[in-house]
């Protein structure tokens, strides 16, 4: 506890040393909660592109991540919003106009919003508070949180929208993410400029929850395409084909897909693909397994039959158990299949 307090003082000192504001402003305040692989980079881009009259408050249960980000912002060029560090999600969001969350799983999103809604009150003027959740969770959980926000901030004083993203850590770092937005039409013009500080494209998919539905449908397809590509490549190579020749044929034919063209699972076929660097980096097999699980859950709720999902889930689960596959890019299923490397 003592060391936490000490760390906390250090964080505050780091903020002061940069001339970061530590006094609260009533309006034009942003809050960013969840500074993991994605959120850290997104918050950095957001802060850098806001004006010095804006404030960004940061919160993560991992205090070291906050400290590191504050220090990195210190070395950033002049300009950008003032930064405040918070001890709880509640404290971070109580005066915020816009709260952005980027958390791992539905339970983390629910628990963060429990804390946020404990502290946040309705703005006294005609404005409303905006909550943008960029986490990949299931649409039902997202709608549940949206309902809690509407109940806590009635009369349209609070709006919760879903904006899951694609582009990975590379896109988050470069500020080139694509966001799939689930929000009422009337809010799009308010949300878009905020998201465009962290990405390059916002695809409005429909009302709240539809951003997640679009994201999960896409990632379901990706989960299957990835396994099928690994199988087809393994098959062709075992029949005696050169891997590059086979990929070249597929990529101008009807089997062409993102795993065959960009993220080919066979090492050496695409030099920039994770397979060519021992499947390191890229989209972790654990995240793929998680998205597949969420897609299956949402499919069940919609009574949509998925013929391939159960087997695909087993493949990712089995592959993740193997030491040489665990924690690597999801194209590592090629290795799990026993493909030649
Ligand atoms: P991550 O696990 O790296 O980071 C999550 C962060 O949330 C951690 O820093 C953790 O300490 C923090 N956290 C957890 N519970 C918290 C709470 N209650 N309050 C405050 N902070 C809390 O995850 P990530 O890779 O940044 O992914 C975030 C979301 O984005 C996930 O839903 C993921 O599926 C999705 N996503 C990830 C990628 C990717 O390539 N990593 C790509 C697209 C989408």
From TrEMBL:
The active site lies at 215
Pfam families in the record, alphabetically?
NAD_binding_11, NAD_binding_2
Describe which pathway this protein belongs to, using the record's wording.
Amino-acid degradation; L-valine degradation
Sorted UniProt keywords: Branched-chain amino acid catabolism, NAD, Oxidoreductase
- Its EC number is 1.1.1.31
User: What processes does the entry annotate via GO biological process terms?
Assistant: L-valine catabolic process
Q: What class of enzyme is it?
A: oxidoreductase
GO MF, one annotated term: 3-hydroxyisobutyrate dehydrogenase activity
Family classification: Belongs to the HIBADH-related family. 3-hydroxyisobutyrate dehydrogenase subfamily.
**Name under which the protein is recorded:** 3-hydroxyisobutyrate dehydrogenase
* Species annotation: Diplogelasinospora grovesii
């Amino acid at each position: 506890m003592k060391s936490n307090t000490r760390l906390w003082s250090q964080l505050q000192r780091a903020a002061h040393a940069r001339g970061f504001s530590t006094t609260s402003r009533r309006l034009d305040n942003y809050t960013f909660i969840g500074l993991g692989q994605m959120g850290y980079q997104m918050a950095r881009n957001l802060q850098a592109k806001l004006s010095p009259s804006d404030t960004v408050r940061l919160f993560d249960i991992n205090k070291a991540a906050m400290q590191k980000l504050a220090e990195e912002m210190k070395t950033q060029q002049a300009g950008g919003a003032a930064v405040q560090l918070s001890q709880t999600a509640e404290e971070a969001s109580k005066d915020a106009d816009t709260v952005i969350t980027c958390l791992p799983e539905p339970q983390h999103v629910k628990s963060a919003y429990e804390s946020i809604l404990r502290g946040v009150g309705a703005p006294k003027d005609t404005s409303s508070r905006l909550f943008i959740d960029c986490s990949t969770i299931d649409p039902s959980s997202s709608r549940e949180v949206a309902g809690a926000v509407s109940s806590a901030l009635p009369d349209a004083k609070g709006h919760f929208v879903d904006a899951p993203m694609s582009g990975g850590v590379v896109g988050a770092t470069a500020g080139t993410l694509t966001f799939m937005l689930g929000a009422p039409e009337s809010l799009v013009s308010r949300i878009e400029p905020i998201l465009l500080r962290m990405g390059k494209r916002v695809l409005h998919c429909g009302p709240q929850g539809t951003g997640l539905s679009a994201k999960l449908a896409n990632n379901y397809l990706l989960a299957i395409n990835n396994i099928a590509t690994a199988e087809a490549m393994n098959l062709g190579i075992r029949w005696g084909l050169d891997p590059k020749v086979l990929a070249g044929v597929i990529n101008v034919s009807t089997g062409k897909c993102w795993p065959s063209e960009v993220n080919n699972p066979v090492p050496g076929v695409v030099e920039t693909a994770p397979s060519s660097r021992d499947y390191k980096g890229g989209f972790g097999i654990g995240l793929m397994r998680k998205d597949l699980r969420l897609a299956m859950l949402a499919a069940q709720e919609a009574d949509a039959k998925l013929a391939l999902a159960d087997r695909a889930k087993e493949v990712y689960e089995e592959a993740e158990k193997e030491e040489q596959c665990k924690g690597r890019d999801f194209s590592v299923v090629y290795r799990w299949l026993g493909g030649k490397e």
